Amino acid sequence: MPEPKRRTECRCGRSPVGKRCVGWHMLTEEQYQEALSEYNKMPEKQQKGLYHAKAIDGLGE
Fold first, then answer.
1. What is the mean pLDDT of each run of 10 residues along the chain (61 residues)?
2. Domain total of the chain
3. Domain range holding 58?
4. Long-range Cβ contacts of 9-16 (<8 Å, 24+ apart)
5. Which of 15, 35, 53, 60 is 20 to 30 A (C-alpha) from 44?
6. pTM of the predicted model, to two decimals?
């Protein structure tokens, strides 16, 4: 039997990289604002990387 597909689409709307979930749904509002501020300081190349440092729980929920 095939394994179920893992959801990686962001449903909370917090992902700064578009539809791909980076786990920011688990952050408090304060943590989210801090992470977003740090993300916005990152060079564009790092912001768009598939495995960038701001993914807190892997590739999705």
1. 62 84 88 90 77 52 44
2. 1
3. 19-61
4. 9/60, 16/40, 16/47, 16/54
5. 60
6. 0.63
